[in-house]
Amino acid sequence: MGRLSTHVLDTVSGRPAAGMRIEFLEASPDGGWLHRGDIRTNADGRTDQPIMAGDAFHTGRFQLRFHVADYFRDKGASLGVTQPDPPFLDIVPIHFGIAEPDGHYHVPLLCSPWTYSTYRGS
Question: Do strands 109-111 and 116-118 pair parallel, antiparallel, or not at all (unpaired)?
Fold first, then answer.
């Protein structure tokens, strides 16, 4: 059975991004986005459960919206990070497709207040 997971790394501190809010959306037939849930990363920068798995896992177009600015606003003082107002990066949307109904789709995010990268992990 397929599943969708994520992992967020804070590249300022070199540690997992604990407590980051992530929105999960699915493309709708009319071209919009359907909100499927909000999740937060745990102490390891992962979610406690897969974002989508089992019978709920299906092909389609999806989006994860990582609330990077809120995370660094909350953690910034302890990291020595000051963000401008407005922040350079606010919400980082990652749009992706799931084509393999039995695949493991892992969408990690490595981020700072000024940059991010992602890839299809395993």
Answer: antiparallel
User: Tens-of-pLDDT digits for all 122 residues of the chain?
Assistant: 899 999 999 999 999 999 999 999 999 999 999 999 999 999 999 999 999 999 999 999 999 999 999 999 988 777 788 889 999 999 999 999 999 999 999 999 999 999 999 999 98
Q: What is the CATH number of the domain that holds 38?
A: 2.60.40.180
> Into how many domains does the chain fold?
1
Closest of 50, 52, 63, 70 to residue 10, by C-alpha? 70
H-helix or E-strand spanning residue 33 = strand 33-40
Residues spanned by the domain of 80: 3-118
**Is pTM beyond 0.90 here?**
yes
